[in-house]
Amino acid sequence: MTSRSGTDVDGGGTTMTEDRGIDGDAVRVVPVRRYGQWLATIVVLVVAGLVVTSLITNPRYQWSLVFSYLFNAQIVEGLGTTLWLTVVAMVVGVVIGIVMALARESRNLVVAAAASVYIAFFRGTPLLVQLIFWFNLAALYPVISLGVPFGPTLFSESTNVLITPFLAAVLGLGLNEGAYMSEIVRAGLQSVDSGQTDASHALGMRKSQTFRRIVLPQAMRVIIPPTGNETISMLKTTSLVSVIAIPELLWQAQAIYSRTYQVIPLLITVSLWYLVVTTVLSMGQYYLERHFTRGDSRRPERSLLGTIVHGLVPRHAAVRRPATTDVQDEGTRS
Amino acid sequence: MTDDATTGAAPVLVEAKGVHKRYGSNLVVRGIDMTVRTGEVMCLLGPSGSGKSTFLRCINHLEKIDAGTISVGGELVGYRRQGDRLHELRDAEIATRRSEIGMVFQQFNLFPHMTVLENLVEAPVQVRRESVKSARERARALLDVVGLADKADAYPRSLSGGQQQRVAIARALTMRPKLMLFDEPTSALDPELVGEVLDVMRGLAADGMTMIVVTHEIGFAREVADTVTFMDGGVVVESGPPEQVLRAPQHERTRSFLAKVL
Ligand SMILES: Nc1ncnc2c1ncn2[C@@H]1O[C@H](COP(=O)(O)OP(=O)(O)OP(=O)(O)O)[C@@H](O)[C@H]1O
Ligand SMILES: [Mg+2]
């Protein structure tokens, strides 16, 4: 941990105290002493020590309970619901995101404006409010019917039957995610040089083929990293739907501790599960990123571990844009 | 092999009449008439901003024209004529017509997420529904022609500019085009790599390919072109055999341009 100042300069593994033995005229390199770093290291170690000691010695953590609940049937069922919700909401979000990203670029101004309004609405209102709204849709429209506009009805059903809590959750999470994903997808699509479309069209590929085969795969390397973050974020966000009584991980824990009052151990159990899944997701992201940067000499240098840590640390939503320099790169290479 | 336009023997392949193109209020191409015969090599010269690229892109309908017509092989590229009306074709029909016109770009525009071989196989399989096997065979043969048989499995990024441009030429040839458009194919290359690309183009010309080449390589134009066309301000200033346009230009604008580039 603290050897950094030593390896910065010689990098060869010799430590500072050893170079006295080298040839008489060897010049000793004295690195800048970084007292601040030493201080920071000491502070971190002391705090970590205190935390660990407290974790071990404070009996109220009830670690045995924490671990005994880890594979509790109710908890595992909740975990399953959480995973399922995450997947469905993300799929809905990604599909909506692609559609909205394309709609915003549409030459049809009505379509483009509708997409913008959608995005502004779903990004501009709290997700929790949206979820409760979908859950209570029946108050606004007691019956949902399908038919010709201003014409005959083909299908009609009570809203409460149609919009189950699970569907309300998927709608809330997916529609909201779609608004964010559309921005990510758009940035990805814009990162692809227009020369790629030209070349594809010139070869006789149709618009849809060009999008599917040429533009989207290249946009992916810009889209994947933030989408991975979105997925990890979604996993945690699904805990919000406990307020509309979806029996996901947090809700199940609450259900147990409302009977047993073991609030803290159960929250720790739940947190451990979230940590495990986010770690696994980060690993998946690492391999996906590697797949979609084929042919790119500037593959991310990040290691598997680096990606995982990176995925767990919250980032601002900025999107990587590698492509702006691509054209010049190719043009001037020798 | 390459019939002189003057002999009038070869049939007309490209015919442009009164082509206009504007971007917003900026009229970039202002009435171009042009005839290119089968097997002819035409070099398009002109100062920067004179509308050469724009006109070239109009030929395969990468840009829509605002007035006039361009036909290739007797067919309007982006339109169907019905009486005195032009109806714009649907995407699939335009794509089919475009597939018979190869285009090579200044920036190569190879697909970076595909290997060289995949770049060459993509269009024949996707557009012509050729079998992957036969597309691969043909791709390898074409790579051989441009001298890059050993690079089939490389990604474009690992190639030099000259190699990338040769791959781009091979890629355009996979569709068996009857016309090849080149937009400054050597302008992005380091000087020592220009020759290898021009060599490939010379070979194509010798094989009788009809080519329209926007270029600043006057030497190439003098040696390979059947016709040299000089453009300025969105119009054709003069056009004729290279010895005439390059040695004894009729117009002052051509003279001052040649004085600068030579
Ligand atoms: N997509 C576009 N939108 C708006 N203006 C454009 C566009 N493409 C080209 N132009 C303008 O049209 C004019 C002609 O451009 P064009 O690229 O055809 O010239 P060029 O003769 O190929 O020049 P160069 O030798 O620099 O390539 C320029 O003034 C350019 O700014
Ligand atoms: Mg140009």
Tell me about this structure.
The complex is a heterodimer of chains A (334) and B (262). Chain A has 334 residues and is mostly helical. Chain A has helices at residues 4-10, 35-57, 63-70, 73-104, 109-124, 127-135, 137-140, 159-162, 165-190, 194-202, 207-237, 249-260, 263-292, 304-312, 326-332, and strands spanning 143-147, 153-158. Chain A is built from 15 helices and two strands. Chain A is flat and about 85 Å long. Chain A starts with a helix and ends with a helix. In chain A, 31% of the residues are buried. The model of chain A is unreliable at 1-21 and 314-334 (pLDDT under 50). Chain B has a six-stranded mixed beta sheet, sandwiched between helices. In chain B, strands 2-1-4-5 form a four-stranded antiparallel beta sheet, covered by helices on one side. Mean pLDDT of chain B is 93; it is low at 1-5. Chain A binds chain B through residues 193, 195-196, 198-207, 209, 213-214, 217-218, 292, 294-297, 326-327, 330-334, and chain B through 57, 60, 62, 91-92, 95-96, 98-103, 105-115, 122-123, 126-127, 155-158, 160-161, 164, 168, 171-172, 175, 188, 190, 193. Magnesium ion binds next to α1 of chain B.
Topology:
The complex is a heterodimer of chains A (334) and B (262).
Chain A: H1 4-10, H2 35-57, H3 63-70, H4 73-104, H5 109-124, H6 127-135, H7 137-140, E1 143-147, E2 153-158, H8 159-162, H9 165-190, H10 194-202, H11 207-237, H12 249-260, H13 263-292, H14 304-312, H15 326-332
Antiparallel strand pairs in A: 1-2
Helix pairs in contact in A: 3-13, 4-5, 4-9, 4-11, 4-12, 5-9, 6-9, 9-11, 10-11, 11-13, 12-13, 13-14
Chain B: E1 12-23, E2 26-37, E3 41-45, H1 52-59, E4 67-72, E5 75-76, E6 79-82, E7 85-88, H2 91-98, E8 101-104, H3 116-126, H4 132-145, H5 161-173, E9 179-183, H6 191-206, E10 211-214, H7 218-224, E11 227-232, E12 235-240, H8 242-247, H9 252-261
Parallel strand pairs in B: 3-10, 3-11, 8-9, 9-10
Antiparallel strand pairs in B: 1-2, 1-4, 4-5, 6-7, 11-12
Helix pairs in contact in B: 3-4, 3-5, 4-5, 5-6
The structure holds adenosine-5'-triphosphate and magnesium ion (MG).
